[in-house]
């Protein structure tokens, strides 16, 4: 990066990608450690509230487990953990822009890499968070007709419309694979002065497509099990 020596401090490419890989793991470990300490320091009322929340969570898991199998549990675990992993990336964007504002307005030395590092980060977050959003029902749904249907009708609608979802997700995965392969083959880099590698972003697009496809498969399996079970129950 000798050609960038006149720009002051420039974040090395290898450090950017390496930090994004290990930073969420560090944050998750610290969060778990802090949570354990917090539980020990809680008073009796707070501890009672915590236990109540845990019981409610267990009840919810028990209800959901009626429509799960080993495959869906594994997929849901990856969807949940991928969302947690990606959530911590947001901290990096805050730090990046704080550094940029400080350098620009206090030292009059604007950076050449912060904006690019941040929008690449946000793009990868958007791609990778799809599975977590699918698991928690956070994607946008047009409810005009959906809300008028009975419960089994809604589940049936989800099963029917899943074919359109899989058409999209599989096409996205195939396209992302082509993008990644071509980008890696030519060592594609961004056109900005920082010139960081672009193929890892295409790899995240592929990974995001695979994760959301698997999350959709898990939801379909659970919807079919729920649809069958509701069909066997007497309707009120």
* Span between termini: 70 Å
Question: How does the major sheet shape up?
Answer: none
Helix residue percentage: over 70%
Number of strands: 0
Radius of gyration: 23 Å
The backbone outline, from C-alpha atoms, is elongated
Mean of the pLDDT scores? 85
Strand residues, percent: under 5%
Order of helices and strands: HHHHHHHH
Structural class designation: mainly alpha
DSSP summary: helix tally:
8
In the predicted model, the low-confidence regions spanning at least 5 consecutive residues are 55-63
Q: How many structural units, i.e. domains?
A: 1
Characterization of this structure:
The longest helix is centred in the C-terminal third of the chain and has 35 residues, at 151-185. Helix 5 (114-128) packs parallel to helix 8 (199-232) and helix 7 (151-185) runs antiparallel to helix 8. By secondary structure, the protein is mainly α. The chain has one domain. Residues 55-63 have low confidence and may be disordered. The protein is 75% helix and 0% strand.
């Amino acid at each position: 990066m000798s050609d960038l020596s006149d720009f002051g401090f420039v974040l090395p490419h290898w450090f950017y990608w390496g930090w994004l890989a290990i930073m969420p793991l560090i944050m998750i470990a610290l969060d778990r450690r802090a949570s354990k300490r917090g539980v020990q320091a809680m008073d009796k009322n707070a501890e009672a509230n915590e236990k109540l929340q845990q019981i409610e969570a267990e009840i919810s898991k028990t209800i959901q487990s009626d429509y799960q199998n080993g495959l869906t549990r594994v997929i849901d675990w990856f969807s949940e953990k991928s969302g947690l992993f990606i959530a911590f990336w947001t901290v990096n964007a805050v730090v990046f822009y704080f550094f940029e504002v400080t350098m620009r307005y206090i030292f009059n030395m604007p950076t050449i890499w912060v904006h690019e590092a941040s929008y690449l980060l946000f793009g990868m977050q958007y791609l990778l968070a799809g599975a977590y959003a699918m698991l928690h029902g956070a994607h946008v749904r047009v409810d005009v007709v959906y809300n008028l249907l009975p419960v089994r009708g809604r589940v049936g609608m989800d099963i029917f419309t899943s074919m359109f979802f899989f058409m999209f997700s599989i096409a996205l995965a195939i396209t992302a694979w082509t993008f990644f392969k071509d980008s890696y083959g030519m060592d594609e880099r961004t056109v900005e002065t920082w010139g960081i590698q672009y193929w890892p972003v295409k790899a995240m697009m592929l990974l995001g497509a695979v994760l959301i496809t698997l999350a959709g498969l898990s939801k379909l399996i659970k919807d079919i099990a729920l649809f069958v079970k509701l069909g066997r129950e007497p309707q009120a």
